[in-house]
Design goal:
- This protein is 56% helix and 8% strand.
- By secondary structure, it is of the alpha+beta class.
- It folds into 2 domains: 78 residues, Glutaredoxin (3-Layer(aba) Sandwich), CATH 3.40.30.10; 126 residues, Glutathione S-transferase Yfyf (Class Pi), Chain A, domain 2 (Up-down Bundle).
- The chain has a 4-stranded mixed β-sheet, with helices on one face.
- A hairpin with a 2-residue loop joins strand 3 and strand 4.
- Helix 1 runs antiparallel to helix 6 and helix 4 packs antiparallel against helix 5.
- The longest helix has 30 residues.
- Belongs to the GST superfamily.
Length: 218
């Protein structure tokens, strides 16, 4: 096994993959390659050759290269898991996991990253109030979803929970929840009890430090 992960801990997608790696017991078998976004490592030719989207994470498994955390997480489970609990083989259960991956990409992370980009590039032209309203709408949708489920894609934890918890814990830094979300809170409590959740918590604090410094400049 020769696994390499190009990563920066402040990134929510990276943390979702690190949570997946930890859940699979692969932590000691994956070599982490730091990518310094502020040094523009992700725009260097050698990195773009691996991932034309110049995003993190990027996984190398021998001669195979894969980008996008959702694809990476499902790949890791498909190849290395001893069972299908984290990414069920049942078609309908798997479809629910996939649907939440799209919710993450299109709504929760998709909307939150617009704020992150504006802050990290000190773009003062954006309407921050509108962007925050979009993120809060995602919170409302997630609350409705979790009203009917113990975890985001059903009654047991899957890789979809890793995607969502990594994103939500980050967007909360940018857009704090202004009202009560009891279903989200109950789910959050379960995720924080994971023995490897500190991986995510550490990355969130790293993000918070940088974000707080940059937001003051807008």
């Amino acid at each position: 096994m020769s696994l390499k992960l190009y990563a920066t801990l402040g990134s929510p997608p990276v943390r979702s993959t690190l949570l997946t790696i930890a859940a699979l017991g692969l932590k000691d078998k994956v070599k982490l390659i730091p990518v310094d976004l502020f040094n523009f490592d992700h725009l260097k030719p050698e990195f773009v050759a691996k991932n034309p989207l110049h995003t993190v994470p990027v996984l190398e498994d021998g001669n195979f290269t894969l980008w996008d955390s959702h694809a990476i997480n499902s790949y890791l489970v498909n190849k290395y898991a001893t069972d299908d609990a984290l990414y069920p083989k049942d078609i309908q259960k798997r479809a629910l996991v996939d649907s939440m991956a799209h919710f993450d990409t299109g709504y929760l992370f998709g909307k939150g990253v617009r704020i992150i980009k504006a802050v990290f590039t000190t773009d003062k032209s954006v309407n921050m109030d509108e962007l925050k309203a979009d993120v809060r709408e995602s919170y409302d949708i997630l609350e409705v979803i979790l009203n009917k489920r113990k975890f985001v894609a059903g009654d047991s934890m899957t890789i979809a929970d890793f995607n969502i918890v990594a994103t939500l814990s980050t967007t909360e830094v940018c857009v704090p929840m202004e009202k009560e979300y009891p279903s989200i809170d109950a789910w959050y409590a379960k995720m924080r009890q994971l023995p490897y959740y500190s991986i995510n918590a550490k990355g969130v604090e790293m993000f918070r430090t940088v974000f707080s410094k940059l937001i003051s400049q807008l």
